[in-house]
Amino acid sequence: MKKLFLLILFSSLYCSGSASDFRVVSLSPALTETISHLGGEKYLVGRCSACDYPESVKKLPVAGKFGLPEIERIVALKPEWVIGNSFANNNAIKKLRQQGIAVDIAQIATAEDYIYWLKLIGSKLNLMSQAQAAEKVFRQDEKFLQGLSPLPLKVLWVVNAKPLIVCGKGSLPDSVLRSVKVENAAGSVEKEYFRCSAEWLATAQVDLMIWSVPGTPEKTGGFLRNISAVKNKRVILLAMDDPICRPGPRFMPSVKALRKKIELFYKAEK
């Protein structure tokens, strides 16, 4: 909390110009969506190529890929604030700050990360009342999830097909599975994302699979075809750009929708 207070205070000191003409480049789909949701889209002057929601932001100039800012393009847009989740090269932050541009980079991989950004964006863009309203809705959804009954299912969340990469302890999908009250089949693995071998998968108990990559596990073939969840068609197909993969305004509704899908599989098995 102290860290957030100091960051907001610092933001107010280096913020130049009035709120009405403040210029922001967002290099994160979740943050671009959050700014727009709070009514701050008018401040956006640039985005990363992955920022695609709401539809209107696609009209903004592209200033790099996710995690890969293009310094010259950003500087040409004359922003006063650049925000993102992470940069592949942290030297980019130094270069932008040398141009007199304020930069804030922080992950948005958990519920509390989202609240952190809500408050920072609200303070920076004079949208605190909107940010507080968004947090209230988020907390209500969070309370609803906390009141759900656990389901005795082990769920494996796949994020890459070849090689097969699944979500382990501490990953965003791991926190989502815990919030919808099911067990992550790979939750004991001390890696957020790890390459899953046929041997490991053969010994893992997988009641249900979440497939968040293009195609289907059946078409991917290989040892996946022998997994009971795949053979019995207990697979939830999830789009790569589903809001559940980028904590933002649509995150909690997407989490609640996932719980309903899981409940349908569970009821069908009983």
Q: Please, could you describe this protein's structure?
A:
This protein has 270 residues and is of the alpha/beta class. The protein is 41% helix and 15% strand. The protein is built from eleven helices and twelve strands. Strands 7, 8, 9, 10, 11 and 12 form a six-stranded mixed β-sheet that branches. A four-stranded parallel β-sheet has the order 2-1-5-6, with helices on both faces. A hairpin with a 2-residue loop joins strand 3 and strand 4 (68-69). The longest helix has 19 residues, at 128-146. The relative contact order is 0.11.
Topology:
Layout: H1 2-14, E1 24-26, H2 29-37, E2 44-47, E3 64-65, E4 68-69, H3 71-76, E5 81-84, H4 91-98, E6 102-105, H5 111-124, H6 128-146, E7 154-160, E8 165-167, H7 172-179, E9 183-184, E10 193-195, H8 198-203, E11 208-211, H9 217-220, H10 228-231, E12 235-237, H11 251-269
Parallel strand pairs: 1-2, 1-5, 5-6, 7-9, 7-11, 11-12
Antiparallel strand pairs: 3-4, 7-8, 8-10
Helix pairs in contact: 1-5, 5-6
Main sheet characteristics: 6 strands, mixed
Number of strands: 12
Instruction: Round the mean pLDDT to the nearest integer and report it.
Output: 90
Proportion of strand residues: 15-25%
The backbone outline, from C-alpha atoms, is globular
Overview in brief:
With 270 residues, the protein is α/β, with parallel strands linked by helices.
